[in-house]
């Protein structure tokens, strides 16, 4: 940048800088922050940086395509949108703008989306998956599932790394509270009330989760959800071979390797470091990954190690904050263009040509 002109962002870091400069401090901290000492948050990106690529040459890369399929749906590329809450915190059109900007990409919508599911679906042109936290009030949970089904969502994503929202020191310090003009409009207001109640030195979303999330949930409860919805079920927040085998045994349709972007268990491994153990245990069950993907090169590493798709959390919100739907589209295009270039230069013209031989350990 420089020269006094506002340069067009051409790296994800530029979108982050623009969002940091314009968003209110407590909103930026909520978006950017992590749990505990933020070790896992830093490790997610650091672990990608430690990997090197092993290029092959003379493979005919005149036609490179990142196209793929997932749960029966065709996707133009394997870069999707992770569920993040309350998009109206950063842009008045919220998740509707996100859905427009997704432009055919996989879009996982948060349970705490701040615009109606039907409006999000009307703006979408690619697969829509509905993310859920297991509420104590199962009637409210089921009502959300019904709304997602009615809006034409394609799958349910149960987030399993959040029996309660972890202590996030920045949010606690800021007394972070969901402001009155922004709300999780797809969930009964009575269940969301405490997320709007401020208290000095404590995060309202952490208090809210302790009050409303069901901490008794076990693998046996998945059957309750499966019996009530025909939609495929995906588990988000898997980091071990043991839990991957349990997911398979319980008939789950896909798993997402995730540490919630370093916002839940601080000390959990970087997602790229947990990926191969999960892929090996998955025995063909589709595995996705989120956490720390900040370039097409990172995406290529995860795909080579066996992820079927990667999801972007914070970068999509940076794009949304910067320029609404156009910003979301720009962020996705940037990563997909980098991925396509990395496929070209590593000599792997399709995702089927990518395997672990494209990546080496540590540099
Ligand atoms: C502001 C914010 C809100 C989030 N809200 C949710 C949510 O509602 N549901 C959920 O399952 N994950 C949520 N996540 C976690 C993301 O889905 C994802 O795991 C994480 O952001 C990926 O890491 P990245 O931000 O490094 O790409 C949230 C993350 C952020 C940053
Ligand atoms: C109740 C939690 C809010 C959304 C979330 O998962 C996050 O902020 O990471």
UniProtKB/TrEMBL annotation:
CDD domains noted in UniProt: alpha_hydroxyacid_oxid_FMN
EC number: 1.1.2.3
Residue positions of the active site: 260
Keywords: Flavoprotein, FMN, Oxidoreductase
PANTHER family per UniProt: 2-HYDROXYACID OXIDASE 1 (PTHR10578:SF107), S -2-HYDROXY-ACID OXIDASE-RELATED (PTHR10578)
Family the UniProt entry places it in: Belongs to the FMN-dependent alpha-hydroxy acid dehydrogenase family.
Cited Gene3D superfamilies: Aldolase class I (3.20.20.70)
One annotated GO molecular function: FMN binding
Lineage: Bacteria, Bacillati, Actinomycetota, Actinomycetes, Pseudonocardiales
Residue positions binding glyoxylate: 30, 133, 168, 260, 263
Cofactor(s) demanded: FMN
Amino-acid positions noted as binding FMN in the UniProt annotation, renumbered to this chain: 83-85, 110, 131, 159, 236, 258, 290-294, 313-314
Keyword hit for Oxidoreductase: yes
InterPro entries: Aldolase_TIM, Alpha-hydoxy_acid_DH_FMN, FMN-dep_DH, FMN_HAD, FMN_hydac_DH_AS
Gene Ontology cellular component terms for the protein in this record: cytoplasm
Record has Oxidoreductase as a keyword: yes
Enzyme kind, highest EC tier: oxidoreductase
Any matching Pfam family: FMN_dh
Domain FMN hydroxy acid dehydrogenase: 4-363
Protein name, per record: L-lactate dehydrogenase
């Amino acid at each position: 940048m420089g020269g006094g002109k506002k340069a067009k962002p051409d790296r994800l870091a530029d979108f982050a800088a623009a969002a940091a400069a314009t968003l209110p401090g407590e909103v930026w901290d909520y978006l950017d922050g992590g749990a505990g000492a933020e070790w896992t948050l830093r490790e997610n990106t650091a672990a990608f940086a430690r990997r090197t690529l092993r290029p092959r040459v003379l493979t005919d890369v005149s036609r490179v395509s990142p196209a793929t399929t997932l749960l029966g749906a065709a996707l133009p590329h394997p870069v999707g949108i992770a569920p993040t809450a309350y998009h109206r915190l950063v842009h008045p059109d919220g998740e509707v703008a996100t859905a427009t900007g997704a432009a055919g990409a996989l879009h996982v919508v948060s349970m705490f989306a701040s615009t109606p599911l039907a409006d999000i679906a009307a703006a979408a042109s690619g697969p829509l998956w509905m993310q859920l936290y297991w509420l104590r009030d199962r009637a409210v949970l089921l009502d959300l599932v019904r709304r997602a089904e009615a809006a034409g969502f394609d799958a349910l994503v149960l987030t399993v790394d959040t029996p309660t929202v972890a202590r996030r020191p920045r949010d606690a310090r800021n007394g972070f509270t969901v402001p009155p003009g922004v709300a999780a409009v797809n969930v009964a207001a009575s269940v969301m009330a405490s997320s709007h109640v401020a208290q000095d030195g404590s995060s309202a979303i952490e208090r809210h989760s302790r009050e409303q999330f069901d901490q008794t949930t076990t693998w046996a409860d998945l059957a309750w959800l499966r019996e009530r919805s025909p939609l495929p079920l995906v588990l988000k927040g898997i980091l071990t071979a043991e839990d991957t085998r349990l997911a398979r045994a319980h008939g789950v349709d896909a798993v997402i390797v995730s540490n919630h972007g370093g916002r839940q268990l601080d000390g959990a491994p970087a997602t790229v470091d947990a990926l191969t153990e999960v892929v090996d245990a998955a025995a063909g069950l589709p595995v996705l990954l989120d956490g720390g993907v900040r370039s097409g090169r990172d995406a290529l590493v995860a795909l080579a190690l066996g992820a079927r798709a990667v999801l972007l959390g914070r970068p999509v919100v940076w794009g949304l904050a910067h320029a609404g739907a156009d910003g979301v589209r720009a962020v996705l295009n940037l990563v997909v263009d980098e991925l396509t270039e990395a496929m070209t230069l590593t000599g792997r013209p399709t995702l089927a040509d990518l395997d672990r031989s494209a990546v080496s350990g540590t540099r």
